[in-house]
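pls ignore typos typing on phone
T4K + seq
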Amino acid sequence: MSTDQSSDIGKKQQVVFDDPVYVTRPYLPPLNDFLPYLEEIWRERILTNGGPFHQRLERELCDYLGVEHLALFSNGTLGLITALQALRVTGEVITTPYSFVATAHALHWNGNKPVFVDIDSETLNIDPAKIEAAITPQTTAIMPVHCYGNPCDTEAIRKIADNYNLKVIYDACHAFGVEDSSGSILRHGDLACMSFHATKVFNTFEGGAIVCPDAKTKKRIDQLKNFGFVDEVTVVAPGINGKMSEINSAFGLLQLQHMGEVIHQRQEIDQLYRAGLENMKSIKCVSQIVGGKRNYSYFPILVDSDSSAGRDELFHFLKKFNVNSRRYFYPLISDFPMYRGMPSAQSDNLKVARRISDSVLCLPIYPGLSRNDAEKIVELIQQFCNTSHNSS
Ligand code: T4K
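k done
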């Protein structure tokens, strides 16, 4: 479809959104409910360094998520970097090109070489069948991503890791509260890292956490996130400052009380989109996992690129109506300048990831997006599909 045709579509439809709609908006509890937490911080004057709110949030998150040990972080990226440090990961690490750039950047910051492996066309997660071919004598770990909160094939990945004596660190930044048929998916791997960024299902403004298998590992990670200190005068490792502050921790405690409602509202939008889009010829909703518990963190669709109007045209069309969808994850990480020269970044190696990255669009989904607005977004997509179909 030409740009002219695309603007014709815009003219036929009244502008339906006076205010911009974003791909996501953070959930915020009533401000008044946060004031008592702030008053306590002001009274006690403990602002950071593992204070009482930090300790409470770690405990309450363990209960909520159904895990035993967890270390809070100031953001998900520092969690990933520290997880690699904690397991003393060196050399090459097998990972996916289809993720937010922080996944590979964490490897880069740790001095590891990311080795990209293609993804599965249904789950959009790393394809376990292609991992073995990428293993070399320098490979020490695998860093898969539970993309959009869809669980990886954890069993297949575990078998490969066991056979080749590799560590597994899950980037579980999208996977807050997700469960498979046997419990939290955060229990898989040697470590799993979460993000509590403003754009995530559970947010602490900025924040993150590492789920640890035992108290000893958590202790080491707690030291690493506090410069490597074990006591006032002893530093055992070149740690970093990855601590979550008391304000963020207190906000997390309040936020946690609202998670049932937050996830329920996301689920309603997810169902509405699926019902509205399922019969549209050039649109495919990314499959949902069967069994377990989802968190509805993103709503990715794949736009058929064979038609004359593809993903980018739909992205710009929606923007004209004040609807800001996002192309998560385009470009592929392997296309960014610091990675694209690597042999594993070459297109032939990543055919599925490239096809998905060229056709994916994430639609707005967040608590507070009204049913009415979500219906209007479906209507706009319908209108786009009808017009582009007629004109092709
Ligand atoms: N691994 C994975 C798989 C990840 O997805 C991420 C983060 C990480 C690791 C690293 O975790 P952190 O270190 O970030 O904890 C956003 C987020 O910044 C990033 O956290 C997230 N993934 C990524 C998928 O998305 P941008 O550049 O797209 O964000 P931005 O600022 O464009 O926000 C998107 C929309 O959200 C805005 O259009 C409006 C809305 N928004 C955003 C913010 C920040 C708000 O309404 N309020 C806000 O405060 O990266």
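The two ends are 7 Å apart (CA to CA). DSSP finds twelve helices and 14 strands in the chain. more later
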